[in-house]
Amino acid sequence: MSLARTVFSSPVHWLAFGLGSGLAPHAPGTFGTLAAIPLYLMLALLPLWAYVAVVALAFGIGVWLCGESSRRLGVHDHGGIVWDEFVGFWITMTAAPAGGFWVMTGFMLFRVFDIWKPWPIRWFDRRVAGGLGIMLDDVLAGLAGWVLLQGLVWLAG
């Protein structure tokens, strides 16, 4: 069975592959993050406490979801699994001001940290297994992006 057929025939894979965005043949993490933007725009309408609660729930679900998809595929952290990019980007965008500039800036900051994986992100990425390991490096990249984004917001204020 082709990977696309597998992804679109299983809710676990479909969600883990970011509603199918992780099937992009090149840079699936970038495409996954792009797919997270429309959902972010809807989440951004929520009060901050609800936004944080949804992101925390998405993280919890993601630990199981990414681990289960990985297990079923027989590949640890398959490149197409991008639910972790969704959550990491949403973390970067927590309490971000409205506007395309801030979305683009948050997108770039998150992708830089997710790709670069500076210490301690790389350390956790190499040492934590399973669904938690898949999620954790993106959560840390999201937090690093959030710190810088909030710093830019403060400087712009």
Can you offer a commentary on this structure?
With 157 residues, the chain is an all-alpha fold. It has one domain. Helices cover 74% and strands 0% of the residues. The protein contains 8 helices and no strands. The protein is globular, with a radius of gyration of 15 Å. The termini are far apart. The model has no long low-confidence stretch (mean pLDDT 97).
Which terms would index this structure?
157 residues; mainly alpha; 8 helices; 0% strand; globular
Give the overall average pLDDT.
97
Outline, from the CA principal axes?
A: globular
Could you give the distance between the termini? Answer: 53 Å
- Tally of helical runs: 8
- In the predicted model, the low-confidence regions spanning at least 5 consecutive residues are none
* Tally of separate domains: 1
What is the strand content?
Answer: under 5%
Oligomer: single chain
- Main sheet characteristics: none
Report the radius of gyration as a whole number of Å: 15 Å
Order of helices and strands: HHHHHHHH
**What class would the helix/strand composition place it in?**
mainly alpha
Helix content: over 70%
Number of strands: 0
